[in-house]
Amino acid sequence: MVSKSQKIRLGIFTLVGSVLLLAMVGIIVGTKFFDKKDFYFIAYKNQSVSGLNVGSAVQYHGIRIGRIEDLSIDKDDVTTVIVEISVKAGTPIKKDVKAVMAAVGITGLKQIELVGGDPREENLKPGSYIQPGESTLDIITDKAGDIANKVDEILKKFSNIFDDQTQQNIQEVVANTNSSLKNFNIIMDENRAKLNESIENIAQVSSELKKLISTINDVTKQLDIDQFNMTVSNINKSADDLTEALNNINYTVLESQEDIIETVRLLKETIQNINEFSRMISENPSLLLKSSSGDSYPGGP
Fold this sequence. Notes:
Blueprint: H1 4-34, E1 37-45, E2 57-60, E3 63-73, E4 80-88, E5 98-103, E6 110-115, E7 129-132, H2 136-161, H3 164-190, H4 192-222, H5 225-255, H6 257-283, H7 286-292
Parallel strand pairs: 1-7, 2-6, 5-7
Antiparallel strand pairs: 1-4, 2-3, 3-4, 5-6
């Protein structure tokens, strides 16, 4: 049987526990109640917000700054979903910030990511709308849809272009090409020996040409450029000296021209006298006897 003192102790314990529990709840609720927040709205038009839930995180540059407070459909436009978020009071949200829905892992859940923000822009006032943004996945999905549409259009154009007649023409072209290749192979087989011989000759000529080039290179390396230049300089000097000597000879000849002319004139007269003397001797040999006895002869001294 429970005594009165035990009942008292049990009552005190229950009362103290209840007070402590109420105090903890009050602290938690009070903290949440007195925690100041700024509220903003995001309007997603023609976008699915699947994966967003009340309580999902709101992050800015990877830091959690708030949570999603409510999700609702716009009464004036049913294609628009309005997301209400709360962030810590005083958090700077610039006018050019955009709210993007980002996936959380592979669970299918999503959260709000605030991206961008120019420090020179003004801050949004609490209660304003934040611009919605497209996530990378949305951009890829849209691009994939565009690509699929373009591929469908291309396939349709191909199907229109390649009708029965066109396909038949293509088959004929392929058949003609195969026939030409077969004829080419036959020609190659028939002239393979000549082609091989020609290739060998070309290789031999190339080898000889390579040897010739190597020889020219060796001779060029062995050639003393300085000595060659000196030889050319000596040849030029000799040519200048020869030119000068010829000029001197011409000058000497010009100066002695009158003496040479006079000498030639005297030689002509001497030859005429000798001819006259010979003629006279041939006509009258006795003149030699007179000459020997001291007589003079015509035209003599």
